[in-house]
Q: What sequence folds into this?
């Protein structure tokens, strides 16, 4: 663990504004909300999925929201410690839906790939889009976000922490 | 070939007590034992500087399983004799649960001859009480007594039939032999693999209740009372058994008893490792029992330490508890365990290892003798303070099933002299 | 995180909770139309059953397969053990084929510990002698946790385990698991069917434990009464056993409806349970079986995925970063 002074790069207001903007983008990109659902990746994406859901409801209407745990689908079991963070909770069918997968930080892309595999065991969505608050680069897989709060180039030695309170690099 | 040996600077311990003296051995006998033997070092005399060491009469084990004939893969009379010599023993009583059983002159003679051929220890075969140790028919006691057998036992098992045991006591009364009992009422111990108590309850294993031993101790004490015979109790392991023998002796009944090194040092808690190395009959018991057995040795209720040396091929001890045979080797560690775990004067520890078992075995004219001119030179020279640990692979016994790995031992044999000849010199067997 | 699961005692209260939490995840997997995840892909789990048990073996194999592990079965009766091969040689031979986990059931207490010493593979004790059956204890605890909605522990929960405690590894492990979570366990059996030394509450009066209205009991756990016990003079006959210790219609009527009735299976109908279980409102015997799969999945996952540090993907420690650099 590096000992360096944490640097706040986004405050809570910035996060709120980004959330609102992404909510608008989601509605615009999908030309409405038909068949659109929000699924947050456990655990970091859950608060953001709920926040986006809240904004979308304020702007337009409520849409189904759920969460998915991708730990059991990771491709690096055996390399690093992993245990399911929480139980998946998708209380609706996902066949033919447009899933907006939500996570707080996009980094290597492995978590998203695992989440896509996990979703596949629930059904067959029409399409999946990705919404993240922070894209910190260093992708290892061909994964790209559809909705981004902020692009934030970082080094692999840095930690990035994202909450509704803001984004902190340390 | 006997040596001329001069042992100098030693502390001599025998039944007369403890003293500083030099000991001179010639032609198989002690010729002088005193401050200054005057024999002097000279040509053909091997001198041992025994400063800091103890010289005592050689140890006698009342209870050794030499496995030959029948289970030579675990031990032979030769390898067992070597282990005995390294443990300071100049005589061992070989248990009769061989295959074929030591219940006839031919097998008894075979065992004795093998012992003589090995030349490392005086091997005295015991006889069984019943033919084949089947518990039905009495062994021809007189025939075997004529062939030199002084102790009879069905060890491995106890004689279950009270009537048969009574007859055995009555019949052998006048023959000058001793009947020794492995006390176990088998109807109470079916399938048992360890002591019946807290540990076995927790582990869910069938247990050997203390009562199974005590019931037979009580029975044989009463049979001794009835018949006027005398009895020796093998490997006593429970507090109540010790009490029973103590009370019987107080009444003047002719009973003697022995205890093993493992029963004065180890408890049933070791079975939580599930290792069959700790499986033995009678089983390791509780700390209260261990303390009672130690107290029994201290006050003389238990006369002797006997190893119950029971070699087993290592594969058999790597099996689950219920499939493994019971038994531990003990000849090479007996002294080390005894000194480390008994709070007794060294004289009394040596008594329990040497002249007391010699008397019980009827060998007192050759072994365990006071170190004085004219006595046979069967001697042990040991370092009473040396601390050491046992390494199974380095044991001379063919089998390495010792439970004392990691147990601190104090007291190590440096030299053993049998009939005036070194069988162990500087901690190594001479042949 | 732990390499092997041999007994509840060795797992500890924290370990019990960890497995039960993991079982929630696995239970959700099992509710899906396709109850399968790739978590243990590439791992091999070998069942080595020296004692007959189709149910437990199937439960483990199903659990392994739902985690996408490969499975192997070693059936003792067909084995070279009959030709004199020792247990040690058997295990070493199988291990040499590349096994990540052994699931072993053996009639000898301690056998799984011996196996654990002979191999680097993980070892799950599926039952050794009368001694331990940790996954049974865990699935029983999980069943109570979910059926009585007690995710935080079993403080104050009153449990009675009835039957042949002495010869029951289920009794020992289930008692250990419930006690680790804070429950109050009473053993109900005649003295001949209790271990020689008993530290738990024990009684031979089942009716006192159930009480007049059944309100004194939260869980009634019935053990199998085996026919073999008759020959050992442990109980005079089965009829008397059932009268004193069985769940008869009369006792069932006195049970409170919310009292759980449990059994490790298979049931000796008419002996320890003398009513039709489907008519008991509190019977959760089928849930036990279902939960067995989730719990065994949790156990296999816990052992074969390294570590249980709940770090998420966001925080990459230096150690892992270094590892990643090494990997690429």
A:
């Amino acid at each position: 663990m590096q000992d360096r002074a944490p640097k706040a790069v986004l405050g809570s207001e910035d996060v709120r504004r980004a959330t609102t903007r992404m909510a608008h983008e989601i509605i615009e990109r999908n030309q409405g909300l038909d068949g659109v659902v929000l699924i947050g990746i456990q655990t970091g994406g859950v608060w953001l999925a709920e926040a986006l859901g809240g904004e979308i409801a304020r702007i337009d209407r409520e849409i189904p929201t759920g969460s998915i745990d991708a730990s059991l689908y990771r491709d690096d079991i055996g390399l690093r410690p992993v245990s399911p963070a929480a139980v998946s909770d998708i209380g609706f069918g996902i066949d033919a839906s447009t899933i907006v997968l939500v996570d707080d930080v996009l980094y290597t892309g492995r978590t998203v790939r695992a989440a896509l595999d996990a979703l596949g065991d629930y059904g067959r969505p029409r399409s999946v889009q990705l919404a993240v608050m922070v894209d910190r680069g260093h992708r290892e897989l061909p994964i790209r976000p559809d909705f981004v709060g902020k692009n934030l180039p970082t080094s692999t030695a840095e930690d990035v922490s994202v909450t509704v309170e803001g984004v902190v690099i340390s | 070939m006997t040596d001329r040996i001069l042992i100098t600077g030693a502390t001599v311990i025998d039944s007369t007590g403890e003293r500083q003296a030099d000991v001179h051995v010639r032609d198989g006998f002690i010729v002088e034992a005193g401050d200054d033997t005057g024999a002097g070092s000279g040509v053909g005399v091997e001198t041992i500087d025994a400063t800091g060491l103890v010289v005592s009469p050689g140890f006698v084990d009342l209870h050794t399983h030499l496995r030959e004939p029948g289970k030579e893969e675990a031990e032979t009379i030769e390898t067992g004799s070597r282990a005995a010599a390294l443990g300071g023993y100049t005589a061992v009583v070989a248990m009769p649960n061989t295959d074929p059983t030591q219940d006839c002159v031919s097998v008894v003679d075979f065992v004795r001859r093998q012992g003589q051929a090995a030349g490392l220890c005086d091997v005295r075969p015991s006889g069984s009480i019943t033919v084949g140790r089947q518990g039905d028919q009495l062994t021809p006691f007189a025939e075997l007594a004529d062939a030199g057998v002084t102790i009879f036992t069905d060890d491995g098992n106890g004689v279950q039939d009270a009537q048969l045991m009574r007859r055995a006591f009555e019949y052998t009364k006048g023959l000058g032999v001793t009947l020794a009992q492995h006390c176990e009422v088998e109807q109470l111990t079916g399938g048992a693999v360890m002591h019946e108590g807290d540990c076995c309850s927790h582990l869910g294993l069938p247990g050997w209740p203390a009562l199974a031993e005590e019931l037979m101790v009580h029975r044989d004490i009463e049979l001794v009372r009835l018949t006027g015979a005398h009895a020796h109790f093998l490997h006593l392991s429970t507090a109540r058994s010790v009490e029973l023998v103590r009370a019987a002796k107080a009444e003047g009944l002719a009973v003697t008893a022995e205890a093993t090194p493992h029963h004065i040092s180890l408890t049933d808690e070791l079975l939580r490792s599930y290792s069959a190395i700790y499986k033995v009959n009678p089983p390791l018991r509780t700390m209260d029992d261990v303390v009672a057995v130690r107290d029994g040795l201290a006050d003389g209720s238990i006369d002797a330490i006997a190893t119950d040396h029971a070699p087993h091929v290592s594969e058999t001890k790597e099996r689950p508890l219920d499939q493994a045979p019971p038994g531990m080797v003990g000849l090479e560690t007996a002294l080390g365990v005894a000194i480390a775990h008994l709070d007794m004067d060294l004289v009394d520890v040596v008594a329990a290892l040497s002249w007391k078992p010699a008397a019980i075995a009827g060998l007192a004219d050759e072994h365990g003798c006071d170190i004085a001119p004219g006595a046979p030179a069967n001697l042990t020279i040991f370092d009473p303070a040396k601390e050491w640990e046992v390494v199974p692979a380095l044991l001379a016994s063919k089998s390495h099933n010792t439970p004392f790995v990691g147990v601190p031992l104090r007291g190590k044999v440096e030299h053993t002299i049998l009939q005036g000849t070194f069988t162990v010199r500087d901690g190594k067997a001479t042949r | 995180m732990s390499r092997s699961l041999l007994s509840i005692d060795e797992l500890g209260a924290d370990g019990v909770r960890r497995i039960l939490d993991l079982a929630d995840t696995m239970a959700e997997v099992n509710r899906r139309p396709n109850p399968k995840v790739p978590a243990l892909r590439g791992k091999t789990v070998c069942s080595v059953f020296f004692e007959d048990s189709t149910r437990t073996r199937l439960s483990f194999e199903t659990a392994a397969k739902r985690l996408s592990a490969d499975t192997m079965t070693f059936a003792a009766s067909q084995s070279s053990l009959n030709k004199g091969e020792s247990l040690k040689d058997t295990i070493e031979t199988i291990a040499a084929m590349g096994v990540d986990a052994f699931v072993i059931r053996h009639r000898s207490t301690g056998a799984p510990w011996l196996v654990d010493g002979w191999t680097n593979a993980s070892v799950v004790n599926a039952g050794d002698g009368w001694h331990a059956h940790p996954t049974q204890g865990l699935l029983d605890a999980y069943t109570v946790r979910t059926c009585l909605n007690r995710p935080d522990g079993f403080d104050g929960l009153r449990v009675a385990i009835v039957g042949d405690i002495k010869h029951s590894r289920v009794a020992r492990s289930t008692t250990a698991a419930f006690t680790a979570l804070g429950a109050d366990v009473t053993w109900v059996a005649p003295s001949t069917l209790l271990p020689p030394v008993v530290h738990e509450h024990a009684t031979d009066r089942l009716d006192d434990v159930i009480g007049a209205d059944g309100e004194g009991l939260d869980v009634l756990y019935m053990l199998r009464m085996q026919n073999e016990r008759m020959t050992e003079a442990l109980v005079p006959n089965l009829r008397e056993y059932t009268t004193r210790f069985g769940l008869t219609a009369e006792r069932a009527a006195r049970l409170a409806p919310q009292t759980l009735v449990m059994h490790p299976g298979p049931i000796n109908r008419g002996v320890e349970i003398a009513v039709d279980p489907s008519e008991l409102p509190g019977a959760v015997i089928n849930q036990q079986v279902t939960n067995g799969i989730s719990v065994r999945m949790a156990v296999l996952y816990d052992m074969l995925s390294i570590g249980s540090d709940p770090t998420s993907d966001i925080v990459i420690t230096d150690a892992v970063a270094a590892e990643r650099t090494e990997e690429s």
